[in-house]
Amino acid sequence: MKALLISSPCEEKFTDLLREAGFAEILRTENAKDAFATGNDCALILLNASHAGPSTLALLGELARRTRAAILLLVPEAEAGELVPEAAKSGVFVLGKPLSRAQFLTSAYNALALHCRLSQSREETQRLKDELYEAKTISRAKIALVKYLNMSESQAHRYIEKQAMDRRVHKLDVALSIIANYDV
C-alpha cells in the first residue's frame, strides 16, 4: 500500500513509522496541493503541519472528496481540539503533536482500516451499478422484441437466454445487439 507524506521538511521519523504500519511505498511532498496529483493512488495521506487554519482544512476536505485515501492531519496539541469538529465533517482525522509511537501506529492502522472498508463499499457499489445496468439493458431489449417482433415478455426473455447460450456470450451482449438492431 502507498502513503503520501506531506511535511516540510519531510521527516524521516514519519517515514519509518509509516513503513512500520505496513506502507510499502511512501511518497513525499512539501506542498499539500501536490497531493491532488498523487493522492488518489494512496491509502493514506499524512499532513504534518506546524499550524492548520481554515484553508488547510478546506484543502484536506477537498482531498477527502476527490481521493480514496484516509487523511491524517498532525498539528500541535493546542490546535487539535478546536480543529477536530470541523475536520471530522470533512472526513479528516486530527492528531495532536507530540504523540507517542503507539498513538501514531494506532491512528495509522485505524485510517488504513477505514480505507479498506471504503474500498470494499466502492467495489460493492460498482458491482450493484453494473448489475442494475445489465438488468435495465436486458429489459430494454425485451421491450424491443415485444414491440417489433410481437413476442410476449416470457418469449423475449427465453429468446435472449437462448441466443446467449447458443452464441456462448453473456445476456448483456445479446441485449445490446438487439437494442442496436432495433435502435430503441
From TrEMBL:
Family annotation (InterPro entries): ANTAR (IPR005561), CheY-like_superfamily (IPR011006), WH-like_DNA-bd_sf (IPR036388)
Span of domain ANTAR: 118-179
Coiled-coil parts of chain: none
Listed Pfam families: ANTAR
GO molecular-function terms, A-Z: RNA binding
Name of protein: ANTAR domain-containing protein
Source species of the chain: Candidatus Pullichristensenella excrementigallinarum
Lineage, uppermost ranks: Bacteria, Bacillati, Bacillota, Clostridia, Candidatus Pullichristensenella
